[in-house]
Specification:
With 305 residues, this protein is α/β, with parallel strands linked by helices. The chain has one domain (5-304): Carbon-nitrogen hydrolase (Nitrilase/N-carbamoyl-D-aminoacid amidohydrolase, 4-Layer Sandwich). It contains 7 helices and 13 strands. It has helices at residues 21-37, 59-81, 154-157, 175-178, 181-198, 279-293, 298-304, and strands at residues 5-13, 42-47, 84-93, 96-104, 110-112, 135-138, 141-147, 166-171, 202-206, 210-214, 224-228, 234-236, 252-260. The strands form 3 sheets. It has a 6-stranded mixed beta sheet. Strands 6-7-8-9-12 form a 5-stranded mixed beta sheet, with helices on one face. Strands 10-11 form a two-stranded antiparallel sheet. Helix 1 (21-37) packs parallel to helix 2 (59-81). The radius of gyration is 18 Å and the shape is globular. The model is unreliable at 116-129 and 286-305 (pLDDT under 50).
C-alpha cells in the first residue's frame, strides 16, 4: 500500500558486567554492530542496558558517574554505524535521575520520552509516580514506548497506538520475577496482542545473561540474589510468525524486516488490551515500595553531594 515502508530492525538482548561501564559498553557495542552489519536501520536496547538492574543502593551513584560515557557511546556509535539506537537507561537531569526511554538518531539528535515530574514528597526517580505520554516522535515515525512494569498501566498500555510505526517495549528484570505468570505473559503474549490490536510491529528488548545482587535495597533483610535476567526478547508483526522469544541466558540479537506506515496492517479492534497491575505485583509493591524508594530519594542524592 502507498506510503508504507519496509524497515530492517534489530533487537538486542545484552548482558551487563556489574559496575564496569567499559566492559558493559563493549558487550553492547558488539551486538549493536552485529545488527548494523545485518542491515538494521533501527536497533532497540533493553532497559538499564548500561547499568543492569540489581536493586542495590549504589546503582544510582554508578549511573550518575558513568552517564557521560554512555552519552558519548550512543552519539558516536549511532553516527558511525548509521543506525538509530533506542532503549532505556538511568539519565541524570536537573539534579534528578530518571529511567528514561530514548531514541538516538545518526544525525546526533536524541529524543527522550517526555517525563512528568511529580512534586509529591514520595516521588522517586527509579519509578515515577505519574506516567507520561508513551508516544515519541522520531525520524522513523511515531514510536510507542513502554518501560517494564508500566506496561500494566492503563494510561500507558491503554493508549491509542493507531498510526504508530512501531511499539518498543524494554525490560530488565531477573528471571525469578520474569517467571511469574503475569510478567511472563507481558513479555511474550502481550506484545502479540498489541501488534494485532493496532496493526503495528512490536519490538521487545529484554536484559539477558547473568543477574546478581548483594543486599538489594528493596529487601527488609540482607541477602544475596543470583541467577539470570529474564530475557524473552522478540519481534512481533501483524500476520507474521514471531521472531523469538530469546531464552534468558543468551546474549544475542534478532534482526527482521517490518512494514510500517498507515494501512500496513488492519487493526483488530475486537481485541481487548488487558491493563491494571496484577495482584502479585501489587502485593509486592505494598511490602517493598518504601524500601525501593530509598534507592533514589532526595536524602540519598543529598548524601552523595
Amino acid at each position: 500500500m502507498a506510503g508504507n515502508l519496509t524497515v530492517r530492525v534489530g533487537v538486542v538482548q545484552s548482558g551487563v558486567t556489574p559496575y564496569d561501564i567499559d566492559e558493559t559498553l563493549r558487550r553492547c557495542d558488539r551486538l549493536v554492530t552485529e545488527c548494523a552489519r545485518g542491515g538494521a536501520a533501527f536497533v532497540l536496547l533493553p532497559e538499564f542496558f548500561s547499568t543492569g538492574n540489581n536493586f542495590e543502593s549504589r546503582l544510582l551513584g554508578y549511573a550518575i558517574d558513568t552517564y557521560p560515557a554512555v552519552d558519548e557511546w550512543l552519539r558516536d556509535r549511532s553516527r558511525e554505524l548509521g543506525v538509530t539506537i533506542a532503549g532505556a537507561c538511568l539519565v541524570p537531569d536537573g539534579g534528578d535521575v530518571w529511567n528514561r526511554f530514548f531514541i538516538q538518531q545518526p544525525d546526533g539528535t536524541r529524543v527522550f520520552r517526555t517525563k512528568t515530574v511529580s512534586p509529591a514528597p514520595e516521588a522517586v526517580y527509579y519509578r515515577t509516580v505519574r506516567n507520561d505520554d508513551p508516544l515519541v516522535a522520531s525520524s522513523h515515525g511515531t514510536i510507542g514506548a513502554m518501560i517494564c512494569a508500566e506496561s500494566f498501566s492503563p494510561r500507558i498500555s491503554g493508549a491509542d497506538f493507531t498510526g504508530c510505526s512501531m511499539i518498543a517495549m524494554v525490560f530488565a528484570i531477573p528471571r525469578v520475577m520474569g517467571g511469574i505468570r503475569p510478567l511472563r505473559g507481558r513479555m511474550a503474549v502481550f506484545p502479540a496482542l498489541l501488534s494485532r490490536r493496532f496493526g503495528v510491529p512490536v519490538l521487545v528488548a529484554s536484559m539477558g545473561g547473568r543477574f546478581s545482587s548483594v543486599n538489594p535495597a528493596v529487601s527488609p533483610v540482607p541477602f544475596r540474589m543470583s541467577g539470570l535476567y529474564a530475557g524473552r526478547s522478540g519481534i512481533y508483526a501483524p500476520g507474521a510468525r514471531p521472531v523469538g522469544p530469546v531464552p534468558p541466558g543468551e546474549e544475542t540479537v534478532l534482526v527482521a524486516d517490518i512494514v510500517t506506515g498507515p494501512g500496513a496492517a488492519r487493526p483488530d479492534t475486537s481485541i481487548r488490551i488487558p491493563t491494571g497491575m496484577p495482584a502479585v505485583i501489587t502485593l509486592a509493591d505494598f511490602f517493598l515500595l518504601n524500601r525501593a524508594r530509598s534507592i533514589y530519594t532526595d536524602d540519598m542524592m543529598n548524601g552523595r553531594r
